[in-house]
Design a protein that fits this description.
about 210 residues, alpha+beta, 2 domains, 5-stranded mixed β-barrel, 5 strands, about 50% helix
């Protein structure tokens, strides 16, 4: 019995391999749990009840109201600037009620009143020029041409998005890599155990031949 236990004792390299495998298994499980609770579940809820539609621009306008944004000019240099509010009103193929267009879900959460948030520059005039350029783009280049937009009737029935932040590719990668980490950990543990078992059997067969 003592010889059998000694034979199954893992070497230092095998012990490190087992620890690495269990560490990867734990990391994969915790990543799946964390992503599921903190990111994946809200993202799926955000997508739930939503879909795509064809949108057509009804009106493009700038409001008199200006909003603050934070710019960075170095490691320890930050400040506040302002930009005008641009609104792009569209008609969707799913509803006759005008809806406010947004760049994506992040922009909608940051400023639900506006359709576009420019990259925050230190100069307010530069921010205004960026917004004016975007206004001309929607008026002149897009005009009455239909384009694909996205909506969510449950969360924001009066708003539509030009693109989704949480598309299928992002969701796939968020689920895939923790799963791969978990499977690699399982594979390392299984291979280490199998290698040790084969080594013990080979040693036992070798001893029997010498007897």
């Amino acid at each position: 019995m003592a010889r059998s236990r000694a034979a199954y004792e893992y070497t230092e390299a095998e012990d490190k391999s087992m620890r690495l495998g269990f560490l990867l298994i734990a990391a994969g499980l915790l990543s799946l749990l964390g992503l599921g609770c903190c990111w994946l579940r809200p993202a799926l809820q955000e997508r739930g009840g939503g879909g795509s539609a064809n949108c057509t621009v009804l009106a493009v306008r700038q409001l008199g109201e200006r909003f603050a944004c934070t710019f960075s000019c170095g490691a320890a240099c930050r400040g506040t600037a302002r930009y005008p509010c641009l609104q792009v009103l569209v008609r969707t193929s799913r509803s006759s009620i005008p809806a406010l267009l947004h760049e994506d879900e992040r922009q909608l959460r940051t400023n639900p009143k506006c359709s576009y948030i420019p990259p925050c520059a230190r100069d307010d005039q530069e921010n205004s020029e960026n917004v004016t350029y975007k206004q001309k783009y929607w008026k002149e280049k897009v005009g009455s041409q239909p384009f694909t937009c996205y909506f969510n009737q449950h969360l924001r029935p009066d708003d539509v998005m030009l693109k989704r932040t949480h598309d299928e590719t992002v969701l796939l990668h968020c689920f895939l890599w923790p799963l791969v980490t978990f499977l690699v950990g399982v594979l390392i543990v299984v291979l280490t155990i199998c290698a040790k078992s084969l080594a013990v059997r080979a040693e036992a067969i070798k001893k029997k031949k010498h007897l």
